[in-house]
Every structure is written in structure tokens, then in C-alpha cells.
């Protein structure tokens, strides 16, 4: 099994990033936090600094089961502006592997053409960024290869959907039960 990476850019939504990593680790799925800059210390939208496991430059030539983009501003814009990340996302998608984005971060998928033809959700106000997508108001949307979430209130459900997608419903249900959901 290849790892999942959760990409962190300055201004990321802390609740989303940590909930996703926590859910995957509770399911014993390999996951790494990745700074998109050369500095492993990344400060979120609410001034919480996280030390990432690695940097994008250190892992850019590897393969992953899923690339996850937490939202937040200006985090989502910083993710979109990373040429290296956008190249990795396109290769990930072309290879048939999963991409996931929550809150404002689905705008990155729209920016690089991955939204085309998919059912997706996002933080209200970013719908126009999802070019060619059928935009739903659901909290979490799993359209096979593309998983999206609406925002911070759905971070745990989004993380559990990624767990289910990478393993199975039983594992996702067990993780949820352990969180008293």
C-alpha cells in the first residue's frame, strides 16, 4: 500500500488537516503530512504551526494512494499556485489514483481540469471554481476517484470517507465508533 499525503500550505485549515491525518492513522493507513514549501513548519489559517513529516520536493517523484488537499485561506490559493503540486495531482489523476479536497481546496482541482465531469462539493462561494463539475450541497461527495468535502464541520466525515475509499466500510465504521460518532 502506498501512503496518502496531506499537503500543507501556509494558511491551511488546521481542523481539516488534523482530522484527516487522525482518521487515516486510526485506520492504520500510511499517511504523511507534506509541506509544499522547503520549510517543514507550516502555519495554518488560525496561527497553529505544524511540523510536516516531509516536503513536496523530497517526495515529488513518489506514488501515492491518495493526495489530499485541506482547505483554508490563503492555503487553498497557495496549493493552487504550486506548479509542483499541480503536476503531481495531474499525474495522480491520470494514473487512476485518488485525489481529495475539502473546503476551498477543490478550487485546485478545478484549476487543473480534474473537476470536469465529476460530482463535487466545496465551501459555499467557491462553486464557480469547479469547472465542468456537477456541484452538490452535500457535506461529503465521493465520486470514485475524486472525493470532496464542504468545510470544517465535515472534516471527520471527509476523513472517514477517505478511509472507506482506501480500505473498506468496516474499517471506516470501526474508526467512527472509536470516535463515538
UniProtKB/TrEMBL annotation:
It comes from the Bacteria. Coiled coil: none annotated. InterPro entries: Class_I_gatase-like (IPR029062), DJ-1 (IPR006287), DJ-1/PfpI (IPR002818), Prot/Nucl_acid_deglycase (IPR050325). Residues 5-164 form the DJ-1/PfpI domain. Pfam families: DJ-1_PfpI. NCBIfam families: not_thiJ. This is DJ-1 family glyoxalase III. It comes from Falsiporphyromonas endometrii.
Amino acid at each position: 500500500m502506498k501512503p496518502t499525503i496531506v499537503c500543507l500550505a501556509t494558511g491551511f485549515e488546521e481542523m481539516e488537516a488534523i482530522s484527516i491525518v487522525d482518521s487515516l492513522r486510526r485506520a492504520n493507513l500510511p499517511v504523511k503530512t507534506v509541506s509544499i514549501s522547503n520549510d517543514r513548519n507550516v502555519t495554518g489559517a488560525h496561527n497553529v504551526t505544524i511540523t510536516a513529516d516531509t516536503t513536496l520536493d523530497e517526495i515529488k517523484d513518489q506514488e501515492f494512494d491518495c493526495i489530499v488537499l485541506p482547505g483554508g485561506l490563503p492555503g487553498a490559493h497557495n496549493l493552487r499556485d504550486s506548479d509542483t503540486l499541480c503536476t503531481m495531482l495531474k499525474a495522480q489523476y491520470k494514473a487512476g489514483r485518488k485525489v481529495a479536497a475539502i473546503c476551498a481546496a477543490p478550487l485546485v482541482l478545478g484549476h487543473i481540469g480534474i473537476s470536469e465531469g465529476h460530482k463535487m462539493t466545496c465551501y459555499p462561494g467557491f462553486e464557480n471554481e469547479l469547472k465542468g463539475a456537477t456541484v452538490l450541497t452535500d457535506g461529503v461527495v465521493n465520486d470514485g476517484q475524486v472525493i470532496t468535502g464542504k468545510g470544517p464541520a465535515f472534516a471527520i466525515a471527509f476523513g472517514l470517507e477517505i478511509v472507506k475509499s482506501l480500505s473498506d466500510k468496516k474499517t471506516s465504521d470501526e474508526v467512527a465508533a472509536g470516535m463515538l460518532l
